[in-house]
Input
Amino acid sequence: MGATRAPGKPRANLRPPPRRSQEERSAETRGKLIKAAIQVLGESGFANLTISKATQRAGLTNGAMQHHFPSRDDLMLALMDAVYPVQQIPFKDIGAQNLGVRERISKVVDLLWGIYGRPEYLVVWDIALGSRGDRKLWTRVRSYQKAISARMREEFVALFADLDMTPDHVEHTFSLTISYMRGVALQSMFGADRLRQADLAMIKDVAYDLLMKGATPRQTAAER
Output
């Protein structure tokens, strides 16, 4: 007779785990390659990042890399996308919450610093500066950056469309705020302390003051 199951013991679930789709497996492989390339870039710099080093770090083949990133340039732009997801900032969601100006600025600054404050953000600087000697890649990097910057400026201007001020003034405020955070992130390359909460609060105050300088007296009084 066959062995009997012990009383009260739950029957083992012998059903195999569901198979992942091709799309899921492809996304996992792509993620591994990007993660490995970021690690190599952080350790060795732009000039020493090669397809072979990235694939070896990921434990994959050059063929897998070529499938997802046909060229090194394609990989570089994918790395920038991975560490610089500014287009995912939910500007429209923030605008739909009917928040005051200070609250909107606070949310945007927090979300931006969540990107600029990550150590991985330095990958953007590595690629931007390292690619200047490669005309083809530099052209693509510049085009990529200009497109993202234009999109962000449009979103930021729309977020404060209820204020009576020129788009140029709103854009100027946004550009200065971004420049401050980029500068702090770049300083961290040389061992400088990262931004503290008190510093972040100061950035929010400065951004608010800059923005409201272009508002009408009635709006400025109401916001203050």
About this structure: The CA atoms of residues 196 and 202 lie 10 Å apart. The two ends are 85 Å apart (CA to CA). The chain has a mean pLDDT of 86. The first helix runs from residue 22 to 44.
